Amino acid sequence: MLSIPVMAQSPVAIETVAPLTEIELLIERHIQSLEKGLADESKFEEAKNKTIRTDFGMLSLLGQSLAEHKDKSARKINGPALRDAALTYNRKGTYVEARAAFTQIQSVLNGTVSGEHALLHPWNKLINMHPMMEEMNAASGALPRILRKPRGKPEEALPAVSWALLAIAMKADTHEVKDPNDLPQWNTWSDDFLVSSLKLAEAVRAKDGATGRKWFDQANETCDACHARFRD
Fold this sequence. Notes:
This protein has helices at about 20-35, 45-70, 80-85, 95-110, 130-150, 160-170, 185-205, 210-230. By secondary structure, the protein is mainly α. It folds into two domains: about 15-110, no CATH class; about 125-230, Four Helix Bundle (Hemerythrin (Met), subunit A), CATH 1.20.120. Helix 1 (about 20-35) runs antiparallel to helix 2, helix 5 (about 130-150) packs antiparallel against helix 6 and helix 5 (about 130-150) runs antiparallel to helix 8. The protein starts with 19 loop residues before the first helix and ends with a helix.
């Protein structure tokens, strides 16, 4: 096994990745998705390793993003408590356990927080690789439509913001790196993907679809190169 330092804090200031408003919009989006996914117990097994697992993982990631965000004055949600509530769901959990975790999350969103919740948490323990890839693929599917004619709506940058935050978690989660000599390349591709995602988000906010498409394509080229080395 490789001896790799654990990334307990993001190497990138979260406020440079996205404003609080966009992180909170992402939280709302995943809450809505999770509520829908848990509405029908008969469909739980089909959805648990897809949207449900992804939503819990993203809420954990977004909670930690809130925890480290410097814009504390405008913060409406207790980030560490949200993270810990989302982490109570285990990927092998039952429907009852998923509902219990969701109830904890709802309590946090309603302002009810009890117990101690550490500010920092290892970034490689926020979301697993499978739900990370599910979220990246969902964002990849949404972005071409947005880039055809960006209108400057707040929600349009969210897929790119998801990519950027996931790039930080991806850099921290090095379990796919079996050879120590490959670690610098893993770090480089993670950093390249983060930069492309940040530039993409900037272009979408500026309603510049052409520039956004350039960075979207660059991000996908990085993904393809990484998959060829570490997955295929």
